[in-house]
Amino acid sequence: MNDQLEQIKAQSKIAPPTGGRGDSSVSVFAPATVANVVCGFDVLGFAVDAPGDEVVMRVTGKPGITISKITGDNGRLPMDPAKNTVSVSVKHYLESIGRTDLGLDIELHKKMPIGSGLGSSSASTVAGLFAAKTLLNDQRDVAQLLPFAMKGEEMACGHGHADNVAPALMGGFVLIRSYEPLDVVRLPHPKDLWCAIVFPDVDVPTREARQIIRNKINMKDAVTQWGNVAGLVSGLFMNDIDLIGRSMKDVLVEPVRSMLIPGFYQMRQMAMELGAVSFGISGSGPSVFAFTKDEQTAHAVIQKLQAFLSGMKIHSESYVSTVNDTGPRVL
Amino acid sequence: MNDQLEQIKAQSKIAPPTGGRGDSSVSVFAPATVANVVCGFDVLGFAVDAPGDEVVMRVTGKPGITISKITGDNGRLPMDPAKNTVSVSVKHYLESIGRTDLGLDIELHKKMPIGSGLGSSSASTVAGLFAAKTLLNDQRDVAQLLPFAMKGEEMACGHGHADNVAPALMGGFVLIRSYEPLDVVRLPHPKDLWCAIVFPDVDVPTREARQIIRNKINMKDAVTQWGNVAGLVSGLFMNDIDLIGRSMKDVLVEPVRSMLIPGFYQMRQMAMELGAVSFGISGSGPSVFAFTKDEQTAHAVIQKLQAFLSGMKIHSESYVSTVNDTGPRVL
Description:
The structure is a homodimer of 331-residue chains. Chain A is α+β, with helices and mostly antiparallel strands and 331 residues long. Chain A has helices at residues 2-14, 85-96, 120-135, 146-157, 165-170, 206-211, 219-238, 241-247, 254-257, 264-273, 295-311; strands spanning 25-35, 44-60, 64-71, 103-109, 173-179, 182-187, 194-200, 216-218, 278-281, 288-292, 316-322, 329-330. In chain A, strands 1, 2, 3, 4, 5, 6 and 12 form a 7-stranded mixed sheet that branches. Chain A has a 4-stranded antiparallel sheet with strand order 9-10-7-11. The radius of gyration of chain A is 20 Å and the shape is globular. The interface between A and B is large, with 38 and 38 residues. Strand 8 (216-218) of chain A pairs antiparallel with strand 8 (216-218) of chain B, so a sheet runs across the interface. Chains A, B: It is found in: Cytoplasm. Chains A, B: It is an enzyme of class 2 (transferase).
């Protein structure tokens, strides 16, 4: 890896100020993600095809990272490069490969809601890191960017969790087996697993959603939970959607967090009655998601849930896709 | 299943007093099992080729279950059919298929230590149930016997856990995803995974080993644990012995139970230095086991550990085998 790093440094020095790829700018999309996946609190996550964020990155003549534009955030995100998760992550990355001499400008186009429980900051961060990696012609596996992406998460959420950034970066279903040392495992999944996401536009800050979780739990509940985590992982490997559905039960976090989501259990019942395989909270909420066996059922679920939320005068957004196996991509 | 049950009843009524198979006696071996598998407390277990127990079952002319002989138990097991796990389980099974008119005599030959943490009662129970199933020509999947085997466990250990009986019955690696409803999943495993077992002959009653486990645990530790459970299951599916090894860490139960096993951490160090992939407590102990990548290393481990225990004046037994995929078998 050190050899590879030297090579990147050498290559990327050939042609400044255009980075190493020869291009002086790049546009990148990175996907939204569903963390926890009901029973796998803090260890499981997967990427979806939509929504996601876009970053346009340009090599500038002057060392340092700038942010020239942010759209779609209603002014909520900091333009200060020292405070924005994207620029902070990219800075850590450039430092790690000894390219602090480089000048990069960032345009961030938010194409997904902030504070939705869909890994909004992760999508931006991963888009930024992948753009930098592309400009620098860094040929290493994207998973190498994970520690830098986690730096961004640490700033955004107050903790360096990886269950959003890892799937946003690597695509597909990802298990974070361990944080120290960091050990991530990419899991397979049934190709015909559809995901219906509904974001009810109510405020559930990640920090608060985390604070209401109990620190002390019953061993008995923990056993139930890891039986289900093991069942979910088995179902993913066995292509057994019914086992996946049976395993997606959360006796520890959902009972608390669901209180922050209006009509959560009614929405679950509606989704299950329409034929969903499972239903739960995406990340720390308020977005909810259902797995279904086909696209049609996924659309039926979002239609029903959005009508229900609308009846409660709650605006919502919805997304339907299969699991995204690509991760970030150049546009 | 009800149709199948009617068929069994009908078939098994054709030729009493010889059961349904036409044979009037059968000898069955059932394997010892390693429950918990370090991180999978109460949800994971696997079967080994050795040791195991044997049951000889004979059809008698008189309704009811008798126990005519028990060997290898040093007089520790009850001869009373109302108190012996084997006869109790078989009785539940006969009742479930409406064959209480049948007379069965049991000879139990203990070929493994009692109270060893190797699923001693499960091996006996499964041998008895499989013998009855064989005599009755019950063609259903062996997994159907699980509820009856759990009745035996309930009597033997004070709780109806399935992490020993399920692998003893089904062979291989088994996940008990859920108890209510009972949901078991057979997991694959690398063919070249060797298991070295050492039983230090010290007294660790299952009930006490269970009582010292804390009821309240930290959420943080639980997350670490289910990350590892998910890693272990992934490693089994991926044939990745290193991932299996990295995942076999227990931050919740082992730190407490290891106190009941003299020299536990020294033995771990010895095993790991000899090249073991993992090391831990089998079930509730005092038996310990190591996974290795080959037979030679497994033998080196048991040799070293037995010499160490011998130095502490502790008698021990040892066993080396791969994972047993067969479960019970007619001898």
